[in-house]
Amino acid sequence: MVATATANPLREGLQVERMPEPNSVVIFGASGDLTKRKLVPALYNLELEGLLPNGFGVVGFARRPIPDEEFRQQMLDGINNFSRNKPAQPDVWESFSQKLHYCPGNFDDPAAYQRLAETLNKLDAEHGTAGNRLFYLATAPEYFPVILQQLGAAGLNESPAGGWVHVIIEKPFGRDLATALELNRTVQGVFREDQIYRIDHYLGKETVQNILVFRFANGIFEPLWNRNYIDHVQITVSEAVGVEGRGGYYETAGVIRDMIQNHMLQLLTLVAMEPPGSFDGNAVRDEKVKVLRALRPINPKEVDRSVVRGQYTAGTVGGKPVAGYRQEKGVAPASTTETFMALKLHLDSWRWAGVPFYLRSGKALPKRSTEIAIQFKQVPLSLFDRGANAEAVEPNLLVLNIQPDEGISLRFTSKLPGATVQVRPVNMDFRYGTSFGVPTPEAYERLILDCMLGEAALFTRDDEVEAAWTFINRILEGWGQTKTTALPGYEAGTWGPAEANAFIEAEGRRWRRL
Amino acid sequence: MTPLSTAVNAAVPTAVNRPAPAPRPMDSTAIEKELTALWRAEAEANRQAGATQPLSRTLLHTLIIVAPDHAAADQARAIATALSPRQPARTIVLELNPAAEATLNAAVSLTGVTLPGGAAAVCGEQISLIAGSPNAARRLTGAVLPLLLTNVPSFVWWMQGSPMAHPLLRDLAPVLDRLIVDSFTFAALDRDLAALRRAIADPHFLPIVSDLAWARLAPWRYQTAQIFDAAGTRPYLQRLRQAEVRYMAGPSGLAGLFAGWLAERLGWKLAVRDGEAMRFAGGQVLRFKPVRAIAGVAAGYFAGVTLTADDGSEFEVSRHGSTCTVTHQRRGDLQTERVVPLRLESATEWLGHELGRLSPVPTYEAALRLLTAASAPEPEIVG
Fold this sequence. Notes:
Chain A is about 35% helix and about 20% strand. Chain A is of the alpha/beta class. In chain A, strands 16-15-14-13-7-12-11-8-17 form a nine-stranded mixed β-sheet, sandwiched between helices. In chain A, strands 3-2-1-4-5-6 form a six-stranded parallel β-sheet. Chain A is globular. Chain A starts with about 20 loop residues before the first strand and ends in a 9-residue tail after the last helix. Chain B contains eleven helices and 17 strands. Chain B is globular and about 70 Å long.
């Protein structure tokens, strides 16, 4: 083995074969909850795991003028309260904290970006961060455009040392097709698409990534994964909590923007996509975007045939009383924002023609659960449901559980012990929680590390965002055309409005009871 | 015997070994029956406790641990228990215990954890086979073979010394996927390493060979490699002229293996080796330096490395208690310094590292080749 100037021969064969190049991370919105609860704990855990480069620095950027020491103390509090490894290890924190800096400034103040550039140059000199930069936009979305424009104006969109500059943009990415297109134009006016990482933390979850492993590292499922064997697919993301004081935000979002447009359509793409040629970022995203483009457009005039909305009223969740949505703080008394949505989708492709996908999501439902259920077709001829003690044979069901009990279960039919032929469905369960007794890394750790490495497979590309909004926009248009004064109500702690059941039962199917 | 720790990462729930009945004569059918009964009892207890998740039996491999005596077997069981949440497995501990009864006795148990929230997870099956005489030891292979799980790999961890001449290894080798030794415990290092190298080169020796000593060095190899990930330091790889490899005064095996890895990876061609240094054809020199042991760190453990380039720049990784310091000095001026945590140094960590991969480790094999080529030829070992 000969050392070359391009490869590091010492790294070959190590368990971690790829290490990010030295870099500095700039967090816009450094005084916010996301920074303290998720981002800095994620960086600290990466440091603990030895996954950060030697040359590394963090700059928190926010409006409030505070000294570095106060920022470090806030971040230490965040780690001690929210990190999966807590409290912070004193000697590691001592070394790590010296890499944390704070740069106060208004998001629209050009002078603040000059100060930021100086801070970053200083980090390059003092911490060896080599001119590589990761800008993390963790602010409210209204600040994204001005931050992006100011970064461009200050020349921070290019590295001074010929290195890389990446930008992570938190959700929501737009609030409809027009604003998403506008934001894409703004960000692409400053950064190239290969510099842009639109984050959806759902994709950083181990079990979501495991959907791809399950589908494409096992040979037995893929032959069945199509219209010939699958009757329909149900995707559920249910939350037991209400809006919990975030009524102001939720009024501008509703479940369609909070869950459906991003997380649920992403789950849909993973379950429905064709096998990519590789796990390369663009190969995976090429296949995902094909799914989104294959979504059969919903006619805005007939939106109610495919979509059911609902809004929770006062009720009880888990034995605790919950106020109705309209009684929540920050919610208009006559609000028509949907807190529940069920919709039926069709994918116009050879694989999925004729297979309906039912999606539902809502707040103040009986329990928190995220799952994808693939229901297979009934056996063509039932041999065992005859006679006096006959039981109907249930179709096979494969459920990918995302949260809270990550795992996979397969329902199949078995004979009950005894001299007569009685059949019952049984579940074969694989549970991460009781199979591996170890916690999994936080989604943000994986995603931030991927961004540093330039691996984009788990981030959303511009055409994905646009395709998703193109589909969603027609639903929004349809809702905009019908003047609604009240949505179908559902009591908090129930599985949505009665209309949601009628909607699926009209097609001879039922929602899964979770 | 090196003291072994069973502690695991603080984030991992601590696994416990469910109480097992005293060892008694049991054949493989009786062992499997007893395991089935234990699983049933566990499932019933889980159900009665109102658990929301069913028990899963997810076993990744069979791990056979060959323990030279009762104390080592106790350590083996503790290590396998601690490892089970991360790598659920069936572990078969072969206890070679001349002090035990002359028969071949067996004991079985399950290991598991209580997860946050109170749910139980069963993570492993443990079978102890205690051979109390050479005659009983000869029956071990026959006892082990029916207990290997089908469809998943089988590993052997030979806890102490070189297994290469042992009849038990000869019998088990054809069904093994991986043989894990610990060259840090080899009695005659050069001879035993040479035997290991011959086994790796032998196309009839099927298991992939790996070494806990390699896992012991993993954090050090990692930190050393990381220095040269940066574009600014990468060119120095070709400009390194001297290396000082330090170890806690005692056995020099770990330092030697690290040196073999470093030199091979850098493409240095060995010219001469004496007790304290290796000299290379390109003029590079690698020196070994024993340092005074520090509290809590065993003799022979790795202490650090300093690499010096042709312009006097120095790159250093040094042990300081539970952390290591990585520094880069350019002509005497400190450029960067970083303190990073050392992964817990325990057999649980090392074994977990080696069980984590199924494929051969070419960098280890290459380091071993360089190291053994530098040693004086030894007589062939029958094995």
